[in-house]
Amino acid sequence: MKDLSQSIARLLQKAASNKDKDSISDWKNRNPQNERFLQNLETYWNSHADISRSSSTSEARQRLISRLSPISEKRHTKTFFLATKLQRIAAILILILTITGLSVYLSSEYIFPTQANWIEISTQAGQQSKVTLPDGSLVWLNSNTQLKYQMQRKTRKVNLSGEAYFEVYHAEKNPFVVETSEATIKVVGTKFNLSHYPESNITETSLLEGKIELTIDRNNKTAVLNPSEKAIYNAKDQTLQVLPSRVSNDISWKEGILSFENVPFVNFIQKLERFYAVEFQYDEKQFENKHYTGTLDNLSIQSVLDFINLTIPVNYEIDNKTIHLKSKQ
C-alpha cells in the first residue's frame, strides 16, 4: 500500500516512472471504484495546480506584485520570497493531505463490493480457469477444482476443494480467509498456492510472497509460512510439516507444466488424471514403493507415458480416455 501511495503521488506530480504507471494501471484494473477514486484525486490535485506549481513564473509574480503596496525594492523582494515560501508550504500540505487520503482509502474496509450469498465456480478434469474476485484478487483454478467465495465488509471468505493459485489484493482491515475441509488459511495480501483434493489425505500450500497462517481445524495445529516455504498436512497421521519449497515448481501448472520431486506414484497418477482428463487402471501394489521426479512441459499424454517409462518401466495401453498400466518389473 505504501509503495502504491508513493507511485500515485509521483503521478500527480508528473514524475511517475514506467514502473509506477504499470503498478497504478494494475491497481485500477482490479476494481472500477479504484479508477473513480483516482479520477477524483486527480481532479482535486489539478484544482490546486496554481499552488502546487512553483510560483516563480512571470504571470504568478505579476499577480502577486499587483496585490502589494508600493514599497522599496528590498521590502518587495523579501515579501515576494516569503509568499513563495508560504505557497510551497501549502503545496506540501496539499500533497500530504492527498497521500493521507489515499492511504486511508487503500486500507479501508469499505472499498469492496459485498454480497451475502456464496458464489461458486468450478473446473472439470483437463480444464483450468482464471477468476477475478470482486475485491480484485486473482485466482487460477487447476483441474477438478471448486471455488466458493463470499465478500463482506470485514472479511473475504473463500472455500476451496481442489487446487488454486492466489494473488490476494492487499487490504489490511479485510482479512482474506481460505477454508478447506481440513484447514483454514488467513492472509492479508500475498501470493500462494493451495492444494486440497477430497480424494487425497494431503493438504499442501506454498508461499511465493507475503505471509500466511495455516490452521488445522481438527487439532488446531498452526504454521506460519514465509516466502519459499511450504506446509504439508497429512490427515491420515495428522502430521504438519514446514519445508523449503521451489514455489516456481508448485505453480508451474498454470503454464501447462507439471513438476514433480520424489512424488509417490499414486499421487503422481492422480495429478495426471486431473490434468489430462483420463483414467488410469493399474495394480497399486505393483507401484507402492515407486516415486517420480521430473518435469512434463506441455506434453501429450502419450509422450508423458513414454517419459514415465524412462524411470519407471511400464507397459501401457491407451483405450480412448482409459489408460491401462502394468509394471515391467
TrEMBL record:
DNA repair listed as a keyword: no
Gene Ontology MF annotations: sigma factor antagonist activity
Pfam family, one: FecR_C
Source organism, top-level taxon: Bacteria
InterPro entries recorded: FecR (IPR006860), FecR_C (IPR032508), Ferrdict_sens_TM (IPR012373)
Swiss-Prot/TrEMBL keywords: Membrane, Transmembrane, Transmembrane helix
Residue ranges crossing the lipid bilayer per the database entry: 89-107
Record-given protein name: FecR family protein
PANTHER family found in the cross-reference section: PERIPLASMIC SIGNAL SENSOR AND SIGMA FACTOR ACTIVATOR FECR-RELATED, PROTEIN FECR
UniProt domain FecR protein: residue ranges: 120-213
Domain Protein FecR C-terminal: 258-324
